[in-house]
Amino acid sequence: MKQNEFVRRQTRGFTLIELILVMALIGILAVVGLGSYTQATIKSRDTERKSDLNQIIKAIESFNNDTGRYPLVDALGNMTCPNASELEESCYSSIYAYFGNEQAIYMLKIPVDPKSTRKYVYVPTSGAVGFSIYAALENTQDKDVVTTDGVVTDWGVSCGDVNCNYKITDTGLVTTK
To answer: Is the pTM of this model over 0.70?
Structure first.
């Protein structure tokens, strides 16, 4: 009877090998899941960047339709909008123009890059007859990242802590060459 009691006591728990196998399996699944989550997060931020730039472009084009030119930039690179006295002032967080005593607001709040260390860059052409707007996509395999012979093109424009690799001009998206 004592021998049966001993056998029963041994079969109640898990063996060390079973526990190690389960922990290894959980670790593998966690690594795979974390990688998928990270990629999905990166792609989500890139989609947000593209959407933000498209909204900004629509506001800039509306500004151009009403004023006959695109916004300029000040010495700090901030977009400028004409104020009531026809002097330039920073648009800062919105795109607007004055017409006499009336203000037209084209974008109440200019979106910012989802990562705080990055920014969108607006560059008007000479005479404000055109513009380019830049962003830095995190997924360098994105079909819209501009490359030349397989090398990411960055134009030497800084989008915060990295160089820009995505560009839209007044004539449309700049694509792979």
So the answer is: yes
